[in-house]
Here is the input.
Amino acid sequence: MTQETDQPRIVGIPLFDHTTLLDFAGATQVFAFAPGFQPVWLAKNLDPVPTSEGVTVNPQHTFDDHPDIDILFVPGGAGPSIASCMTDTGYQEFIKRTAATASWTGSVCNGAFILAAAGELDGCTNLTTYWSLVDLLDEFPNLSVDRNHYDRCSIDMDRKRFTGGGVSASIDLALELVKIISGRESAELASLLIQYSPNPSVDSGDPNRMNDSKRVAAIVERQQSALIEPVTTAVRGFLGTS
Here is the structure.
Protein backbone atom coordinates (compact mmCIF):
# COMPACT_ATOMS: atom_id res chain seq x y z
CA MET A 1 0.00 0.00 0.00
CA THR A 2 1.55 3.28 -1.11
CA GLN A 3 0.14 6.71 -0.34
CA GLU A 4 1.14 9.98 -1.95
CA THR A 5 1.04 13.35 -0.23
CA ASP A 6 2.69 16.74 -0.62
CA GLN A 7 3.00 17.26 3.11
CA PRO A 8 5.24 15.17 5.37
CA ARG A 9 3.51 12.67 7.57
CA ILE A 10 4.00 13.74 11.17
CA VAL A 11 5.16 10.90 13.40
CA GLY A 12 4.26 11.90 16.95
CA ILE A 13 6.32 10.25 19.69
CA PRO A 14 4.91 11.01 23.17
CA LEU A 15 7.69 10.89 25.76
CA PHE A 16 7.50 10.33 29.50
CA ASP A 17 10.02 10.23 32.33
CA HIS A 18 12.41 7.30 32.01
CA THR A 19 11.33 6.29 28.54
CA THR A 20 13.88 4.08 26.78
CA LEU A 21 16.21 6.07 24.55
CA LEU A 22 16.54 3.68 21.61
CA ASP A 23 12.79 3.01 21.61
CA PHE A 24 12.23 6.46 20.17
CA ALA A 25 15.70 7.46 18.94
CA GLY A 26 15.92 4.46 16.60
CA ALA A 27 12.53 5.15 15.07
CA THR A 28 13.31 8.87 14.90
CA GLN A 29 16.44 8.13 12.89
CA VAL A 30 14.49 6.09 10.35
CA PHE A 31 11.62 8.53 9.93
CA ALA A 32 14.00 11.51 9.71
CA PHE A 33 15.77 9.94 6.73
CA ALA A 34 12.72 8.46 4.99
CA PRO A 35 11.22 10.80 2.37
CA GLY A 36 7.87 12.24 3.36
CA PHE A 37 8.05 11.70 7.13
CA GLN A 38 8.75 14.10 9.98
CA PRO A 39 9.25 12.76 13.52
CA VAL A 40 8.37 15.03 16.44
CA TRP A 41 8.83 14.48 20.17
CA LEU A 42 6.06 15.53 22.53
CA ALA A 43 5.57 15.64 26.28
CA LYS A 44 3.27 17.22 28.86
CA ASN A 45 5.48 20.30 28.86
CA LEU A 46 8.75 21.39 27.27
CA ASP A 47 10.95 20.48 30.23
CA PRO A 48 13.84 18.10 29.49
CA VAL A 49 12.74 14.47 29.73
CA PRO A 50 15.03 11.99 31.53
CA THR A 51 15.45 8.64 29.78
CA SER A 52 16.06 5.25 31.37
CA GLU A 53 19.66 5.50 30.13
CA GLY A 54 20.41 8.53 32.31
CA VAL A 55 20.50 11.19 29.60
CA THR A 56 17.84 13.83 28.97
CA VAL A 57 16.16 14.90 25.74
CA ASN A 58 14.14 17.95 24.81
CA PRO A 59 10.58 17.59 23.49
CA GLN A 60 9.61 19.87 20.61
CA HIS A 61 5.90 20.12 21.35
CA THR A 62 3.45 19.64 24.18
CA PHE A 63 0.38 17.43 24.27
CA ASP A 64 -1.75 20.55 23.92
CA ASP A 65 0.23 22.31 21.18
CA HIS A 66 1.48 20.24 18.27
CA PRO A 67 1.01 19.70 14.55
CA ASP A 68 -1.56 17.20 13.35
CA ILE A 69 -0.20 13.71 13.97
CA ASP A 70 -0.56 11.10 11.26
CA ILE A 71 1.36 8.28 12.98
CA LEU A 72 1.25 7.89 16.76
CA PHE A 73 4.36 5.98 17.88
CA VAL A 74 4.40 5.18 21.61
CA PRO A 75 7.77 4.16 23.10
CA GLY A 76 8.40 1.96 26.11
CA GLY A 77 10.37 2.62 29.25
CA ALA A 78 11.13 1.69 32.83
CA GLY A 79 8.55 -0.50 34.57
CA PRO A 80 7.27 2.09 37.07
CA SER A 81 6.93 4.66 34.29
CA ILE A 82 4.87 2.32 32.15
CA ALA A 83 2.67 1.60 35.17
CA SER A 84 2.22 5.32 35.74
CA CYS A 85 1.35 6.08 32.10
CA MET A 86 -1.33 3.40 32.14
CA THR A 87 -3.34 5.47 34.61
CA ASP A 88 -2.02 8.98 33.97
CA THR A 89 -5.09 10.95 32.91
CA GLY A 90 -3.19 13.52 30.82
CA TYR A 91 -1.12 10.95 28.99
CA GLN A 92 -4.05 8.62 28.38
CA GLU A 93 -6.27 11.44 27.15
CA PHE A 94 -3.58 12.48 24.68
CA ILE A 95 -3.27 8.89 23.42
CA LYS A 96 -7.02 8.46 22.92
CA ARG A 97 -7.50 11.89 21.35
CA THR A 98 -4.61 11.46 18.94
CA ALA A 99 -5.38 7.86 18.02
CA ALA A 100 -8.91 8.92 17.06
CA THR A 101 -7.58 11.01 14.17
CA ALA A 102 -4.20 9.44 13.35
CA SER A 103 -3.91 7.18 10.32
CA TRP A 104 -1.74 4.74 12.26
CA THR A 105 -1.31 4.07 15.98
CA GLY A 106 1.12 1.73 17.69
CA SER A 107 3.98 1.12 20.04
CA VAL A 108 7.36 -0.41 20.48
CA CYS A 109 8.56 -2.45 23.45
CA ASN A 110 6.39 -2.21 26.57
CA GLY A 111 4.70 0.90 25.25
CA ALA A 112 2.07 -1.65 24.20
CA PHE A 113 0.76 -1.66 27.77
CA ILE A 114 0.06 2.07 27.56
CA LEU A 115 -1.96 1.57 24.40
CA ALA A 116 -3.71 -1.49 25.81
CA ALA A 117 -4.80 0.52 28.85
CA ALA A 118 -6.23 3.14 26.50
CA GLY A 119 -8.19 0.44 24.65
CA GLU A 120 -6.34 1.23 21.44
CA LEU A 121 -5.24 -2.37 20.83
CA ASP A 122 -8.68 -3.91 21.37
CA GLY A 123 -9.53 -6.44 18.68
CA CYS A 124 -5.94 -6.83 17.52
CA THR A 125 -4.22 -10.21 17.28
CA ASN A 126 -0.62 -11.37 17.09
CA LEU A 127 0.57 -8.35 19.05
CA THR A 128 4.08 -8.20 20.45
CA THR A 129 6.06 -6.38 23.11
CA TYR A 130 9.30 -6.78 25.05
CA TRP A 131 10.07 -10.51 25.24
CA SER A 132 9.78 -11.01 29.00
CA LEU A 133 6.38 -9.26 29.08
CA VAL A 134 4.66 -11.06 26.20
CA ASP A 135 2.58 -13.36 28.40
CA LEU A 136 1.51 -10.43 30.58
CA LEU A 137 0.23 -8.44 27.60
CA ASP A 138 -1.94 -11.43 26.73
CA GLU A 139 -3.85 -10.96 29.99
CA PHE A 140 -5.77 -8.06 28.44
CA PRO A 141 -9.05 -9.71 27.40
CA ASN A 142 -9.70 -7.88 24.14
CA LEU A 143 -6.42 -8.57 22.35
CA SER A 144 -4.07 -11.46 21.79
CA VAL A 145 -0.37 -12.10 21.31
CA ASP A 146 1.70 -14.92 19.89
CA ARG A 147 3.30 -16.38 23.00
CA ASN A 148 5.61 -18.68 21.04
CA HIS A 149 7.47 -16.06 19.03
CA TYR A 150 9.14 -12.74 19.77
CA ASP A 151 8.47 -10.78 16.61
CA ARG A 152 10.41 -7.64 15.80
CA CYS A 153 7.19 -6.07 14.57
CA SER A 154 3.55 -6.91 14.04
CA ILE A 155 1.23 -4.94 11.77
CA ASP A 156 -2.58 -5.01 11.77
CA MET A 157 -3.44 -3.67 8.34
CA ASP A 158 -7.21 -3.61 8.94
CA ARG A 159 -7.11 -1.62 12.17
CA LYS A 160 -3.96 0.34 11.27
CA ARG A 161 -2.26 -0.73 14.46
CA PHE A 162 1.34 -1.81 14.99
CA THR A 163 3.46 -3.16 17.83
CA GLY A 164 7.15 -3.88 18.08
CA GLY A 165 9.49 -5.94 20.19
CA GLY A 166 11.98 -4.45 22.59
CA VAL A 167 14.27 -1.46 22.20
CA SER A 168 16.27 -2.08 19.00
CA ALA A 169 13.12 -3.34 17.28
CA SER A 170 12.11 0.31 16.89
CA ILE A 171 14.35 0.50 13.81
CA ASP A 172 12.79 -2.56 12.15
CA LEU A 173 9.30 -1.39 13.06
CA ALA A 174 9.84 2.09 11.64
CA LEU A 175 11.28 0.69 8.41
CA GLU A 176 8.31 -1.66 8.05
CA LEU A 177 5.90 1.25 8.47
CA VAL A 178 7.78 3.31 5.89
CA LYS A 179 7.62 0.37 3.47
CA ILE A 180 3.87 -0.12 4.00
CA ILE A 181 2.98 3.56 3.81
CA SER A 182 5.41 4.91 1.21
CA GLY A 183 6.73 1.85 -0.57
CA ARG A 184 9.78 -0.37 -0.52
CA GLU A 185 12.00 2.14 -2.31
CA SER A 186 11.53 4.70 0.46
CA ALA A 187 12.33 2.12 3.14
CA GLU A 188 15.40 0.95 1.25
CA LEU A 189 16.61 4.54 0.92
CA ALA A 190 16.21 5.18 4.64
CA SER A 191 17.98 1.92 5.45
CA LEU A 192 20.90 2.84 3.21
CA LEU A 193 21.16 6.39 4.53
CA ILE A 194 21.43 5.19 8.13
CA GLN A 195 23.59 2.23 7.01
CA TYR A 196 21.29 -0.24 8.68
CA SER A 197 22.67 -3.61 7.69
CA PRO A 198 22.67 -5.64 10.91
CA ASN A 199 25.24 -8.38 11.24
CA PRO A 200 25.56 -8.81 15.02
CA SER A 201 28.60 -10.44 16.52
CA VAL A 202 26.19 -12.44 18.70
CA ASP A 203 22.67 -13.49 17.82
CA SER A 204 21.05 -13.96 21.22
CA GLY A 205 18.60 -11.08 21.27
CA ASP A 206 15.69 -13.50 20.88
CA PRO A 207 15.18 -15.88 23.82
CA ASN A 208 14.46 -18.66 21.34
CA ARG A 209 17.99 -18.24 20.02
CA MET A 210 19.76 -18.07 23.36
CA ASN A 211 19.90 -21.86 23.72
CA ASP A 212 20.45 -21.48 27.45
CA SER A 213 17.23 -21.53 29.45
CA LYS A 214 19.06 -20.98 32.73
CA ARG A 215 20.58 -17.71 31.52
CA VAL A 216 17.20 -16.54 30.20
CA ALA A 217 15.59 -17.39 33.54
CA ALA A 218 18.34 -15.52 35.38
CA ILE A 219 17.74 -12.41 33.27
CA VAL A 220 14.00 -12.59 33.96
CA GLU A 221 14.76 -12.85 37.67
CA ARG A 222 16.96 -9.74 37.50
CA GLN A 223 14.18 -7.85 35.74
CA GLN A 224 11.54 -8.60 38.35
CA SER A 225 11.76 -5.57 40.64
CA ALA A 226 12.49 -2.87 38.05
CA LEU A 227 10.38 -4.05 35.14
CA ILE A 228 8.15 -7.09 35.46
CA GLU A 229 6.61 -6.58 38.90
CA PRO A 230 5.63 -2.91 38.44
CA VAL A 231 3.98 -3.61 35.09
CA THR A 232 2.31 -6.78 36.38
CA THR A 233 0.86 -4.92 39.37
CA ALA A 234 -0.41 -2.15 37.09
CA VAL A 235 -1.99 -4.54 34.59
CA ARG A 236 -3.75 -6.67 37.19
CA GLY A 237 -4.88 -3.62 39.12
CA PHE A 238 -6.21 -2.10 35.90
CA LEU A 239 -8.02 -5.31 34.99
CA GLY A 240 -9.19 -5.99 38.52
CA THR A 241 -7.53 -9.39 38.57
CA SER A 242 -4.92 -8.77 41.27
